[in-house]
């Protein structure tokens, strides 16, 4: 009896992928890409927060240096507020910077708070002695 052999049996190799192999490969790539998208989104949000926080800290430091360079008697006692735009240069309403000086025994405690939405803030304090 003569055995019928197919071309597949003669060459001994497969010529392609099965549908299940292709679906599994696509599923694995999809999961990996979704993980990368999530990671990228978190990195972008973190960078934006760090930029905003750095801008707020710079605004607070600038005002602190300005108040420290004033004469002791010229430092305003009451709370004072000004507003700044998101770029930290032009006047606007994104950042709210508040500062005050509390009188102590021969000293003033200067407190500067820069806040921005949603409920974030940077606070710097220093003690200034009489001249």
Structural features, described:
It is a single chain. The protein has 131 residues and is an alpha+beta fold. The protein has one domain (17-129). It contains 2 helices and 4 strands, in the order H-H-E-E-E-E. It has helices at residues 7-11, 19-69; strands spanning 80-84, 95-103, 107-116, 120-129. It has a 4-stranded antiparallel β-sheet with strand order 1-2-3-4, with helices on one face. The radius of gyration is 32 Å and the shape is rod-shaped. It starts with 6 loop residues before the first helix and ends with a strand. 12% of the residues are buried. The model has no long low-confidence stretch (mean pLDDT 85).
Overall number of structural domains: 1
Major β-sheet strand ordering: 1-2-3-4
Q: Tell me the number of strands.
A: 4
* Helical content (DSSP H or I, runs of 4+): 40-55%
The stretches of 5 or more residues where confidence is low (pLDDT under 50) are none
Percent of residues in β-strands: 25-35%
Oligomer: single chain
Write down the secondary-structure element order.
Answer: HHEEEE
The major sheet is characterized as: 4 strands, antiparallel
Give the number of helices: 2
Overall, the morphology is rod-shaped
Derived from helix and strand composition plus strand pairing, the structural class reads alpha+beta
Distance between the termini: 116 Å
